Amino acid sequence: MRNIGAQKNEGSDSRIFDLILTGLSSILVLVTLPFSLFVCMKVVQEYERAVVFRLGRLVKGGSKGPGIFFILPCIENYTKVDLRTITFDIPPQEVLTKDSVTISVDAVVYYRVQNAPVSIAKVENAHQSTRLLAQTTLRNILGTRDLHQILAEREHISNSMQTVLDECTDAWGIKVERVEVKDVRLPHQLQRAMAAEAEAAREARAKVIAAEGEHKSSQALKEAADIISQSPAAIQLRYLSTLNSIAAEKNSTIIFPLPIDFLSELVHAKDN
Questions:
Q1: Could you give the count of Cα atoms lying within 13 Å of 7 in the half-sphere of its Cβ?
Q2: 151, 145 Cβ separation under 8 angstroms
Q3: Is residue 257 part of a domain?
Q4: 45: which of 123, 210, 267, 270 lies 20 to 30 Å off by Cα?
Q5: Same domain, yes or no, for 77 and 115?
């Protein structure tokens, strides 16, 4: 009870002392008008906010701006906070994947200050903390995935990183808007192995396609031969078409074709 009472007395004494200093500072401003306006009047841009502290305590209202605001000399100071979206490139990180492959991955993070007073009062350097957290989060998330998942699921990895970062930085007044995985660099030996595997797969597919084409072509030829063999007139027309194709070529060979009927009669005579 004594400690509680002592703390209350100290708090009341501190408030009285703050009121006295505030009154003295206000009197000083009034006495030195209009010259004090050059010291007291401050301006922040549309994309900025000013976090004001009075005797070490955060002033009510949190932040001020945009536009003109006033501070009391000697007892108040302020810090400007930029609210625009900031782009941060995560340096290439050496990551060991779940299937024991060492890769180098870099990414880009888009974030902004959402709560200016919290970003100043709750963390020493909100921007540096966010950047360090982004690097560790990238390594942690990629370390739980196989190489083929990292190469095929970049968008899912980016969304997971954004969710984790946004949850952690919310207490710092930071809003992570977007995360993008820029590049995944593989070891040269693994690149050559993957290229050889892809080339072998393409060759295998080409052979399968060629074999299927040959199979379909042979079936079509067999069906055509069966149809032609059932009609002597069709055989004659095919023979004449072949002669026409040969005659169209410019060569020095002269062919004297014999009628199919004459050839068929010779064949029958030989059989008899």
A1: 4
A2: no
A3: yes
A4: 123
A5: no
20 belongs to a structural domain: yes
Please give the tally of structural domains in the chain.
Answer: 3
Digit-by-digit pLDDT tens for the chain (272 residues) are: 445 444 445 556 667 766 777 777 777 777 777 776 777 888 888 889 998 888 778 888 778 888 888 888 877 788 899 999 999 898 888 888 888 888 888 899 999 999 999 989 888 889 999 999 999 999 888 888 888 888 888 888 889 999 999 999 999 999 999 999 888 888 777 666 666 666 777 777 877 887 788 778 777 777 777 766 676 666 666 666 766 666 666 554 555 555 555 555 554 555 55
The reply to whether 255 falls in a domain is yes
74 & 98 share domain: no
Q: Give, in order, the Cα–Cα distances in Å from 9 to each of 4, 18, 54, 55, 149.
A: 9, 14, 21, 19, 63
Residue 238 CA to residue 236 CA, distance in Å, equals 5
Range of the domain at 63: 2-82
Can you tell me the distance from the alpha carbon of 267 to that of 11, in angstroms, rounded to the nearest whole number? Answer: 128
Based on the domain organization, do 231 and 160 belong to the same domain? no
